[in-house]
Write a sequence for this structure.
């Protein structure tokens, strides 16, 4: 038998050879063969590289490129795995991606399907956290002046943590031991994809509650989770969580990890607790200690009050010994009062006697109404005499002036002037005659005179039984006020008025 060598151009893995005797295959068959070969050879790989061209599709899948200085590898992370990643991918981040190699036949490309993503070493992760810390500190988010004091005894406490972990049970148990309070829990993821947005939303949600609303607004917030690796705690280093903690108007305690763990939320919170249990101890005091403290304060206050009262009593006793007897003080004051009353009585009589003398003196200086009327009447008579003398003097001067003028005028002009003056004088005489009281009597009025012949001007000036004389235009009648006249009045003829003389 002759041995027949195999064709050196036969293909690997059972594929037809590539010689002239090779069977034809389709593109899809070749693509599937390559896919099986790659997936079988690189079923589980860990690739280190720098993220570039990262994007998140609307479906939730993540697409990125892992590259180094010589090559680049397309990578994809399906939605289910993306939610479980410990970090949020960013361009320029150096990571280690764990997954498998597969092909994408539609484009004849191979890619890495990422199942797990981690930073390339703790140093790179810490460097990223440190850079973020410097950025936020430069914005003033870690300024001590922003931190608020914790309430002494909050009525409502809000807790942001996982509802299934031991952290929540430890906090509730510690609060119940120290001082039971009303607690509101906002359940969130504390690690992985979506943890940071939920934590930030919970902090802002508690702050958005209205005071007096259906859901009570907390007086204090606790953001807590248990210990873990630095990758597990990355959600509390995210910028959104740090900003939400810094913006909180409710005092906030951060209790993330163990005492040696430090996250960026610790710098933005108002107080950092080394453990979640320590956060509960910071939140409320021990009720029994408060009761004991209040009792001790009350005891000390009662003792201080007793001492103060004792000191005041001793002081009062000392002062009372220096005071005289009250009855003696009263007697002395009574004697002084008697002396003052006696002095007042002695001074009162001369004072009022002097006032009475002064009143008598003022009364003597006052003039009676009759005296005042007599003075006024004398003043009027004096004024009338002065007016009459002045009037006659003026007439005399006018007469002499007229004579001088008449002597200097022609006879005809003098006769005309005399005629005009006579007419003017007649008019004045008629006017004066119309103003006389006789003309008033002719109009129906009467003039009443008393027994002395003086005119009676008011009814108050007439007394009962006074004799009166009533003058009418045609005569006078005697009358008695308040009774009948003693004899029948008789008419008297009024003497005719003297004719008006001529001034010339």
């Amino acid at each position: 038998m002759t041995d027949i060598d195999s064709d050196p151009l036969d293909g690997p893995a059972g594929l037809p050879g590539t010689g002239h005797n090779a069977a034809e295959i389709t593109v899809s068959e070749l693509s599937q063969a390559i896919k099986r070969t790659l997936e079988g050879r690189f079923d589980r790989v860990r690739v280190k590289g720098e993220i570039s061209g990262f994007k998140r599709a609307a479906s939730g899948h993540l697409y990125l490129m892992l590259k180094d200085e010589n090559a680049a590898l397309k990578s994809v992370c399906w939605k289910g795995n993306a939610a479980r990643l410990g970090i949020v991918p960013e361009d320029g981040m150096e990571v280690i991606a764990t997954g498998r190699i597969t092909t994408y036949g539609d484009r004849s490309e191979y890619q890495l399907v990422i199942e797990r993503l981690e930073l390339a070493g703790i140093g790179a992760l810490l460097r990223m956290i440190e850079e973020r810390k410097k950025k936020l500190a430069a914005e003033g988010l870690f300024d001590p002046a922003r931190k608020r004091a914790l309430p002494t005894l909050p009525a409502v406490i809000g807790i942001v943590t996982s509802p299934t972990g031991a952290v929540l049970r430890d906090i509730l148990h510690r609060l119940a031991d120290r001082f039971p309070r009303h607690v509101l829990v906002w359940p969130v993821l504390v690690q992985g994809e979506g943890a940071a947005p939920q934590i930030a939303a919970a902090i802002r949600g508690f702050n958005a509650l209205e005071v007096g609303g259906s859901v009570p607004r907390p007086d204090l917030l606790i953001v807590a989770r248990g210990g873990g690796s630095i990758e597990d705690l990355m959600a509390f280093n995210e910028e959104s969580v740090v900003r939400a903690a810094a913006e909180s108007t409710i005092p906030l305690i951060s209790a993330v990890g163990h005492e040696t763990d430090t996250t960026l939320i610790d710098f933005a919170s108002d107080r950092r607790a080394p453990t979640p249990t320590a956060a509960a101890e910071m939140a409320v005091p021990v009720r029994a200690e408060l009761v004991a403290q209040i009792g001790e304060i009350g005891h000390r206050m009662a003792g201080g009050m007793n001492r103060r009262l004792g000191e005041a009593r001793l002081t009062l006793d000392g002062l009372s010994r220096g005071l005289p007897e009250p009855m003696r003080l009263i007697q002395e004051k009574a004697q002084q009062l008697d002396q003052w009353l006696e002095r007042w009585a002695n001074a009162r009589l001369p004072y009022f006697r002097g006032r009475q003398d002064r009143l008598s003196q003022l009364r003597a200086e006052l003039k009676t109404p009759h005296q005042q009327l007599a003075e006024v009447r004398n003043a009027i008579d004096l004024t009338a005499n002065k007016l009459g003398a002045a009037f006659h003097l003026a007439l005399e001067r006018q007469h002499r002036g007229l004579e001088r003028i008449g002597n200097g005028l022609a006879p005809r002009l003098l006769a005309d002037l005399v005629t005009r003056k006579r007419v003017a004088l007649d008019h004045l005489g008629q006017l004066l005659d119309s103003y006389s009281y006789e003309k008033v009597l002719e109009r129906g009025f009467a003039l009443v005179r008393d027994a002395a012949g003086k005119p009676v001007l008011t009814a108050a000036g007439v007394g009962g039984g006074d004799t009166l004389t009533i003058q009418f235009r045609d005569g006078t009648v005697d009358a008695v006020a308040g009774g009948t006249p003693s004899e029948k009045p008789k008419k008297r003829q009024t003497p005719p008025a003297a004719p008006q003389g001529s001034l010339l």
